[in-house]
Amino acid sequence: MKQPWSGALVAGALAFSATAMAAPPTAAMLSNACAGCHGTHGGSYGPSMPSLASQSKTAIVEAMKKFKTGERPSSIMGRLAKGYTDADFEAMGEFFSKQKFHATSQITDVAKVKKGADLQEANCSRCHLDEGKDGKDDTPVMASQWLPYLQMQMDLYQSGKRKMPEKMAEKVKPLSKEDLDALIHFYAAQK
Amino acid sequence: MTLDRRSFIKILGSASGVALAGCAGAPAVVSGSANEMLAKTGRRVVVVGGGYGGTIAAKYIRMMDKSIEVVLVERNDHFVSCPFSNLYIGGIIKDLTPLTIKYDKLVSNHGVKFVQAEVTAIDPATHTVVTSKGTLTYDRLVVSPGVDFRLEEMKGYDDNAMQVMPHAWKAGPQTVLLRKQLEAMKDGGTVVMSAPLAPYRCPPGPYERASMISHYLKQHKPKSKLILLDANPDVTSKGPLFKKGWKENYAGIFEYRGAKKVTEVDVKGMAVLVEGLEDVKGSVINVIPPQRAGRVAVAAGLVGDDKNWCPVNATTFESTKQKDIHVIGDACIAGAMPKSGYSANSEAKVCAANVVALMNGKETVDLSGINVCYSYITDDQAISVAGVYTVKDGKIVGVPNSGGVSPADYSMAKTEAIYAHSWLKNILAEMST
Ligand SMILES: Cc1cc2nc3c(=O)[nH]c(=O)nc-3n(C[C@H](O)[C@H](O)[C@H](O)COP(=O)(O)OP(=O)(O)OC[C@H]3O[C@@H](n4cnc5c(N)ncnc54)[C@H](O)[C@@H]3O)c2cc1C
Prior knowledge:
Number of strands of chain A: 0
Strand content of chain A: under 5%
Largest sheet of chain A: none
CATH architecture of the largest domain in chain A: Orthogonal Bundle
Bound molecules: flavin-adenine dinucleotide
Number of helices of chain A: 11
Strand order of the largest sheet of chain B: 5-2-1-9-20
Order of helices and strands of chain A: HHHHHHHHHHH
Structural class of chain A: mainly alpha
Mean pLDDT of chain B: 93
Oligomer: heterodimer
Number of domains of chain B: 2
Radius of gyration of chain B: 22 Å
Largest interface: A-B, 47 and 66 residues
CATH class of the largest domain in chain A: Mainly Alpha
CATH topology of the largest domain in chain A: Cytochrome Bc1 Complex, Chain D, domain 2
CATH architecture of the largest domain in chain B: 3-Layer(bba) Sandwich
Mean pLDDT of chain A: 91
Number of strands of chain B: 25
Helix content of chain B: 25-40%
CATH superfamily of the largest domain in chain A: Cytochrome c-like domain
Radius of gyration of chain A: 22 Å
CATH superfamily of the largest domain in chain B: FAD/NAD(P)-binding domain
Number of domains of chain A: 2
């Protein structure tokens, strides 16, 4: 029997000079590292970790830039975003935007969802298109997003820690706490 | 040809004396494929170990190239996560169900072939893995066996001693045993923990455990004490944050003692000995022994000059000792990436991409890695350390000015405690769906 490596085995050590050159990280290489928190291909099993699958590319890129500068408050994303360049953000945004939509089955309040549908139509549909299923430019997809995550983000907006786009603030300010809760239930329930 | 397990290992062992350390038989001719338990038809990767690293390597290789057969070999039919096992020990999580995963979905969703067996030897020369159920040949092998203990450095700490003074550093029955002992202890008792010199599995792990045991004592046995004897001169991870958390929550209950290396246990006297001299008695004793790569990696000649950990190529995670064998997770030396579940997950994906590239004659791709470790201080406060990694001059290094620890004032601790639960859910889902 041939044992091509047996000499090396006896010597006990052999340094393999494999792959002196390797290509720089691909979009998949960069993005797969995020999946330990956001789920495989960005499909989160929740309940507070947001899905990134089929998110708007620009929304991801903008979020990452704001995390990096600290403009958008975060518990962990700021520290991570500092490890990447704008080109990395583009690559990861592209990768996640192309993944299959991750529908979630969450427990939502039927009455709230119904109320939220009307509120969305009247107040938010100009930007959050197609019941939150469509993310246009920097406006994120919110359909099927995890309820506790949306609640935490709403709290950040309300406390002023996360800055709302001016035009969104105009629509959000007049609404009651109950209204906003209904809206969030509505988005979480969309598939 | 049928052979029982022992006689087969004997034959193979003599064919590859190096693979089976200490077995210096005369070379005999043996064909690895004759006892193949699954006939190898096409290209095959065998993955050893179905934990944080192995499951992800198996799944991602299949996701990246369905034409490669992947066989995952694991000794158990399920896996219990070490992450969050400290919360179970602290009484915050009531049972191990949320920490337990099965392998069936890796099979049904991704076509991974699962073999429940003990890997007893690896023969790099014949590309053969010897298991308790037969042999498997491979084109490439991914090894993610986690750690085993350097028991020779902890006098008296044998299988029997582990039943008296659990390590609970591999989750499962040991975790349950430690929890039961804490529950059974009378109020006013002393719990003693020992932590080994770095490097070991999960740098912040002993300190999170100390926090969780203290949490339990504070809630249920407030007259009791916990002493952590740390072989390291000081807290090895998130030091200032842990110390602040201990001071604010566990003053009078928890005492940290640095530079106290436990080298011996006295099971009868219920004591541990620091440097073989000073003995510290406890009602409950949790010994975390020094560690090295899982013994199967040692036997396969994968460990480096330190005899403990496996040196690897920073891009492909291919062993620098044995060709066509990749080592990931706790067992490998991954430069700046710590020995954590998140690192193992991240390394597995880098390894998978490059195993697929190598098997297809394509260019390999440099690592981009992440580590995040959450540690609970109380039931609703957690702190974290994060890192983003890249390769520089053939070494895995942190990206400058990135990562770091949670804010020193604990302003994010409650938020992080919420997100950490979802981290566990997602990383376990990654491993099992
Ligand atoms: C108390 C504690 C808390 C922790 N908390 C965290 C945390 O919060 N976050 C974090 O990221 N990390 C944490 N860790 C670290 C984490 O558990 C490890 O880093 C991770 O499990 C390493 O993955 P691995 O694949 O190398 O090994 P493992 O996950 O241990 O997997 C190894 C697998 O291989 C199998 N195996 C070994 N040898 C053989 C053999 N010969 N034949 C067949 N099967 C075999 C084992 O049964 C096991 O299933 C913690 C660790 C501990 C102890």
